[in-house]
Design goal:
Helix content is 20%, strand content 33%. With 658 residues, it is of the alpha+beta class. The chain folds into three domains: 219 residues, Beta-galactosidase, Chain A, domain 5 (Distorted Sandwich), CATH 2.70.98; 213 residues, TIM Barrel (Alpha-Beta Barrel); 124 residues, Golgi alpha-mannosidase II (Immunoglobulin-like), CATH 2.60.40. The protein has a 15-stranded antiparallel β-sheet that branches. Helix 6 runs parallel beside helix 8. The longest helix has 18 residues. The mean pLDDT is 95.
């Protein structure tokens, strides 16, 4: 067995083959009638790949609350699954029988060894996104409103450790300052028998994360398929435009026509159009009808979609909607509620939302999507996903509600749109691990054009969150403006992102020259194989504070691309790149320096010296040199040259003669 267990100083210790990776493991339980009761490990029993650790009450008393408190560990494909097996004592023969509190039902306390040499935690923010923190202790993670850590990585010796809290039909687990927090989310449960976390160690952090995800899939604790098992919709292969930053909620068909006309006059080919929030009929942030607002779209959606497709060559038209109908759910005074009351229920907080059964939720979305499909709509963007569980708490246990909502909406999306959906505001492990089929998800908070230095947090979110999402999803790095101080770095980041590429320009303000290295004349964008993510040497580094370029990589077949971004405000930063900074890069490569427009050869002994200013970047494409001395060379006028679908085979020696 790769993992070992021992008891020291009344706490459990877990080691891998080389190092202690987790210490001071104890358990605290909140019963409805008795709070914060501590339990310490007393017995470790090993049986093949399974280890059972029994915990006893720290301060024994005459009236024991627990029948038993155990952690069951099972090793699978290099990862360790921990299952909580707790049971209340219901046989006391007294009025003081116990059940678990619905929230903060139990704590599995732990400490990360001080011998670690780097730490990266991804915590929830407000609560829709994961944000990186580089604090050296989870107690020091500064969270805004939310304090849930959904992914924790650190390095000990030569190994990288990844800890993944789990979400399932019975419990919702996350990490806080002292360790894991286990929530049943429904009162009066007298047992907890649920997987609570996975832990893996590997030679690089990307491998540790993937090991956990693969093990979770093999053990049926993660229901989301791997990306290679999904069909990524072709809807978003081309260049797109979204209405959000152009009009926000004041979107109208006339405004959209004006912008499409501007694109047409400038020779910009748009292949897909997303009509974002604002098109629906709503009041007090609650949905009145599934139909479009007649004041904003007086010709109706059917005529609108017909016009944009026929007159402006748009191939796909999509619309935004919220996971619960609208931000505040369904309005009781609207025709939607009055005609379909049986499809909704009122939560304990007074919100009317779809469900609480999968059948009812599906019927609602089936009705809405059927109408949209009839109007010529080809895809949807589904927003506000990560707030769903809080609306259904105390109605269903654990993450049951989130799972059934995802199952219901995806059943409808695949029925009507062939799976063409962008999941949004759902970068929380509860949602990430709960979608049954869909392939595309937003990877970060919004692009905020008026937020000072907003690109720093935007790129940090994207490239540090990508390692946990990319094995499961095609990652969407959001839209951007071509008339902005960050246009070049935003365009480069999207070009190497591997996900959808689209802008949200205001009417008439598109800088067509900024699109030349990004979009082909016929509206195509070239995609890399995975998602752009931080290089291994900077995995635990906040580059904006360290004063070094943030290096980001992706791959296409045997080729790699590396972007180096200056994100230290008003400073020139210096760094270097070597092949060992990215996994599986070995041998010799022909490198094209995009902005310097020069070629050179890089091997495992060499390095590239980098210097970038704030809001600028360097970009290098690495072409694998074959044994015959050839490379498959892309069109060097595009940022994504390494993903050119029609490369030319050339001799490296011929290039050196030019």
């Amino acid at each position: 067995m790769k993992f070992k267990f021992s008891i020291l100083n009344k706490s459990l210790i877990i080691s891998d083959e080389q190092n202690v990776i987790l210490t001071n493991i104890k358990i605290r339980i909140n019963y409805i009638r008795s709070k914060n009761i501590s339990y310490i490990p007393s017995l470790v029993e090993e049986n093949g790949s399974t280890t059972v650790v029994t915990f006893e009450r720290f301060e024994p008393r005459w009236c024991p609350e627990a029948d038993h408190v155990k952690l069951i560990f099972r090793e699978e494909n290099g990862a360790l699954l921990a299952t909580a097996d707790f049971a209340c004592n219901l046989n006391l023969g007294t009025p003081y029988n116990f059940t678990y509190a619905a929230f903060e039902s139990a704590f599995i306390d732990f400490k990360v060894p001080e011998s670690k040499s780097g730490m990266l935690s991804l915590h929830s923010t407000i609560p829709f996104w994961l944000t990186p923190s580089f604090a050296d202790d989870i107690k020091n993670v500064e969270c805004f409103l939310e304090k849930e850590i959904g992914s924790l990585s650190y390095k000990i010796g030569n190994n990288h450790v990844h800890i993944l809290p789990l979400y399932n039909n019975d419990t919702r687990t996350h990490i806080e300052a002292e360790g894991f927090v286990v929530n049943t989310c429904i009162a009066n449960k007298d047992t907890i028998n649920s997987a609570v976390f996975l832990i893996a160690s590997a030679k690089n952090p990307f491998a540790a994360i993937r090991t956990n995800l693969l093990a979770g899939k093999a053990l049926n604790e993660i229901i989301t398929p791997l990306l290679e098992e999904k069909q990524v919709p072709t809807t978003f292969d081309g260049f797109g435009w979204c209405t959000w930053n152009a009009f926000y909620k004041e979107v109208t068909s006339e405004k959209i026509y004006n912008q499409l006309e501007s694109f047409k006059q400038k020779g910009i080919k748009i292949k897909w159009l997303l009509v974002d929030d604002g098109w629906q009929q709503f009041e007090d942030k609650k949905l009145l009808s599934i139909k479009e607002d007649p004041k904003k779209f007086p010709e109706g959606f059917k005529a609108f979609t017909k016009k944009v497709k026929e007159e402006y060559g748009i191939k796909y038209v999509g619309v935004w909607h919220a996971f619960e109908g609208y931000w505040g759910g369904i309005h009781k005074d609207g025709e939607l509620y009055q005609n379909n009351k049986d499809l909704f229920f009122e939560t304990p907080k007074g919100l009317v939302v779809p469900g609480p059964t999968e059948e009812n939720a599906f019927k609602f979305w089936d009705m809405q999507h059927s109408y949209l499909k009839e109007q010529g709509i080809d895809f949807v963007k589904v927003d506000n996903q990560a707030s769903a569980s809080s609306k259904y708490d105390n109605v269903l246990p654990g993450s049951s509600a989130v799972r059934l909502l995802h199952a219901a909406i995806e059943k409808s999306v695949f029925k009507h749109f062939g799976g063409s959906v962008i999941n949004c505001m759902g970068v929380k492990m509860e949602n990430i691990l709960s979608r049954p089929m869909s392939a595309i998800t937003r990877n970060s908070d919004d692009f905020y054009p008026n937020k000072p230095h907003g690109f720093i947090s935007h790129i940090n979110q994207n490239v540090y969150v990508a390692p946990i999402q990319a094995p499961l999803y095609n990652c969407d790095y959001d839209m951007f403006w071509t008339h902005h101080e960050t246009t070049t770095v935003s365009a480069v980041l999207r070009a190497i992102s591997g996900g959808p590429v689209y802008i949200s320009d205001e009417v008439g303000k598109t800088n067509e020259k900024a699109l030349l290295p990004l979009v082909t004349p016929n509206g195509d964008v070239w995609k890399f194989d995975s998602a752009a993510m931080v290089t291994e040497d900077l995995f635990y580094t906040d580059c904006s504070k360290k004063g070094v370029p943030l290096k980001v990589w992706n791959k296409s077949g045997d080729n790699f691309v590396v972007g180096a971004f200056g994100i230290t405000v008003d400073k020139t930063v210096k760094g270097s790149f070597k092949l060992s900074d990215i996994p599986n890069a070995s041998g010799k490569y022909l490198v094209h320096d995009f902005f310097g427009d020069k070629y050179f050869v890089l091997d495992e002994k060499g390095r590239i010296e980098i210097e970038t200013d704030y809001n600028t970047c360097s970009l290098y494409t690495l072409y694998k040199i074959s044994d015959e001395g050839t490379v498959k060379l892309g069109d060097k006028s595009f940022y994504a040259e390494g993903a050119d679908p029609n490369p030319k085979t050339v001799l490296v020696s011929d290039l050196s003669k030019e």
